[in-house]
Amino acid sequence: MSEHDVLTDVMDLLRVRGAVMAQIRARAPWGLRLPQNSGASFHAVTAGSCWIRVGSQPPRELFPGDVVLIPRGTPHIVSSEPKGAAQPWDRAAKARARTPSGEIVLDGAGASTHFICAAYDYDHDVAHPLLGLLPAVLVCSEREMRETALLSSTLRLLRYELTNADAGGPAIVNRLIDILFVQVVRAWIANSAASNASWLGALGDPIVARTLTIMHGSPGSPWTVEALAEEVNVSRATLARRFVRLVGETPLSYLTRWRMELAARHLRETDNAVGAIARQVGYVSEFAFSRAFSRARGDAPGRYRRTHRASARR
């Protein structure tokens, strides 16, 4: 059986895609109130310092090299101070502050801060727990966290591409933004696995991570908890207990949901017959698959396909 990278599988299914929204050069005092958005928000400080304020969480000071990922687009404030007023940051405000070079400049008399803002979109039809289990805000700081050296290198390369007009620069920028999303999540996993009881922590646990890898590598196989436990050389009870503690559901419940995610993608993106898709994800009976899919998605496979094809044509 070939090895599968579970995080890569999930990222591929989520179809995370990012774009740089602004390069900002701000002199204190300043504050930007960013509204809710449908994807994820990203900020990276390249010079100076600033504060991030998200909901009722304590303000967090950011320094050069720090990056922030707000996975569910929660409203937040980026500012020169930990409290105080902030101006709504909408399209009109951006247009007023944008210079002919494309940089956004906020004038003031105080200290200067440079930072990059990006936004990510992803497939909202995918219900994998990764996005739901990520905290409202992830801050990656090389002063405090392990596994951030590569993230810092990517950020330096991004800054270079943004400030130089080399051929192919925009293509490189888009790919670096996508890479940064994965690197932030990976750094968070590396630093939270020991203490975070969630799907994130599961990727840092050798037994559960291996179990996830096996299921992702062969989702159509007739897995049982006993068979999975044998593959990872632990007892059935040990695997069941450990998996539920770290992932939040049983191995077979996770497998069913992952199969439904894969099936939904096949229905949206291919013309394969429902019976063929059912067999791909481990169902001998098309009726049993249709019943499981309807339970998971609220629509029978055929209706789900027609609905999403119609939406795509609009």
Tell me, briefly, the overall form: elongated
Q: Which class of the largest domain in CATH terms?
A: Mainly Beta
Instruction: Report low-confidence residues grouped into runs of 5 or more.
Output: none
Tally of helical runs = 13
CATH topology descriptor of the largest domain: Jelly Rolls
The averaged pLDDT comes out at 85
How many domains comprise the coordinates?
2
Strand arrangement within the widest β-sheet reads 9-1-10-3-6-11
Helix percentage range: 40-55%
Radius of gyration from the alpha-carbon trace, in angstroms:
22 Å
- Count of strand segments: 11
Task: Give a structural overview.
The chain has 314 residues and is of the alpha+beta class. The protein contains 13 helices and eleven strands. It has helices at residues 6-14, 91-97, 129-133, 149-163, 169-192, 199-202, 206-217, 225-231, 236-247, 251-269, 274-280, 286-297, 301-313; strands spanning 17-27, 31-34, 40-47, 50-53, 60-62, 67-70, 76-79, 87-88, 104-106, 112-121, 138-140. Strands 9-1-10-3-6-11 form a six-stranded mixed beta sheet, sandwiched between helices. The longest helix is centred in the middle third of the chain and has 24 residues, at 169-192. It is elongated, with a radius of gyration of 22 Å.
Set down the secondary structure blueprint:
Elements lengths: L5 H9 L2 E11 L3 E4 L5 E8 L2 E4 L6 E3 L4 E4 L5 E4 L7 E2 L2 H7 L6 E3 L5 E10 L7 H5 L4 E3 L8 H15 L5 H24 L6 H4 L3 H12 L7 H7 L4 H12 L3 H19 L4 H7 L5 H12 L3 H13 L1
Parallel strand pairs: 1-9, 2-8
Antiparallel strand pairs: 1-10, 2-7, 3-6, 3-10, 4-5, 4-7, 6-11
Helix pairs in contact: 4-5, 8-9, 10-12
